[in-house]
Specification:
Number of strands: 9
Order of helices and strands: EEEHEHEHEHEHEHHEHHH
Largest sheet: 7 strands, mixed
Strand content: 5-15%
CATH topology of the largest domain: Spore Coat Polysaccharide Biosynthesis Protein SpsA, Chain A
Number of helices: 10
Distance between the termini: 31 Å
Radius of gyration: 23 Å
CATH architecture of the largest domain: Alpha-Beta Complex
Strand order of the largest sheet: 5-4-3-6-8-7-9
């Protein structure tokens, strides 16, 4: 466990504020997944420590090295953090799941090792989480740092996720969060191994009526190279299909079935004028029935998996 200090005020070059007294009696585990982040991982750990020590609460910092090819693990060890590692490169989500399982405290925070998420928000978010199940850092206008080519996909994913959740989701895949471990553990088997971990955890919480709120944060420019690869576009398509069937599937399958049913009805009216039932009409009605059936099955499965 990292060092515990007594002061209750926070005074740093980036912010001057009184640390929320609501963190008294709380404990926090911070999980930092890292892959080839030798440049920034030590400074990230030091940033976290500098903002948690003044709280005077028990805390730990866990760095999960995802089989890095550089000196990430050595840098993390030198920083004094608790080290975990994957024997093979397993993905962002896999690293987070390993870290969450290791966490010894009820409240768990996650943030990236590339300096994009300032640790100065952790005290406030921890205090807010006392009355919540998860607090998410909302990057807001700072999302301008997202590459232009990725923005359309992100906008579509945000809109689609909000449609499924039946509520506005400000930031679907923010990597800065504080949550209750006991609320997340039941969903760990559903969470993916890759970058869609944060997207899925957001929908898990909203789909189960968990208490989740957003708080504005500044999103910095990453240190080092991005880990996003061209193959992640395929992962994006798989993610859309996955969340469509896992979270509130009737919101997708009922309207889609209605489209085919309406098409079948229109074509049937045309067929009646010619006294001829076409194959297109039969196909449209069958497609509607199949889509509704799949939707009902998906809804039943999702209710079983997402049962609190």
């Amino acid at each position: 466990m990292d060092k515990i200090a007594d002061p209750t005020t926070l005074d740093s070059p980036t912010t001057k504020e009184v640390v929320p007294s609501d963190t008294a009696g709380m404990e926090l585990s911070v999980v930092i997944p890292a892959y080839n982040e030798e440049i920034a991982v030590r400074s990230t750990v030091e940033d976290v420590r500098s903002h948690l020590e003044p709280l005077g609460i028990p805390y730990e910092i866990i760095v999960v090295d995802d089989c890095s090819q550089d000196e990430t693990r050595a840098e993390a060890e030198d920083s004094g953090a608790t080290i975990a590692y994957n024997d093979v490169n397993s993905g962002y989500g896999a690293s987070l799941k390993r870290g969450v399982k290791m966490a010894q405290y009820e409240y768990v925070a996650i943030l990236d090792a590339d300096s994009t998420y300032p640790a100065r928000y952790l005290p406030k978010m921890l205090a807010m989480c006392r009355d919540q199940d998860m607090v998410v850092g909302d990057r807001g206008a700072a999302m301008k740092n997202v590459p232009f080519m990725r923005r359309p996909a992100k906008k579509f994913l945000f809109a689609f996720a909000s449609f499924l959740a039946e509520r506005k989701i400000n930031d679907l895949n923010s990597g800065l969060r504080v949550f209750r471990k006991s609320e997340l553990i039941p969903f760990l088997p559903l969470l993916p191994q890759n970058f869609s971990f944060t997207t899925t955890i957001t929908l898990c919480m909203t789909s189960n009526s968990k208490r989740m709120i957003y708080t504005p944060i500044e999103y910095g420019k990453r240190v080092g190279k991005s880990k996003i690869r061209p193959v992640d576009f395929l992962n994006f398509i798989i993610l859309i299909l996955r969340i469509s069937t896992l979270f509130n599937p009737l919101r997708v399958f009922i309207p889609l079935g209605l489209m085919f049913f309406a098409l079948g009805m229109l074509k049937l009216l045309v067929d009646i004028t010619y006294w001829n039932l076409s194959g297109t009409t039969v196909f449209a009605f069958l497609a509607a029935i199949m889509i509704w059936s799949l939707g009902l099955i998906a809804d039943m499965i999702s209710r079983l998996h997402l049962r609190p």
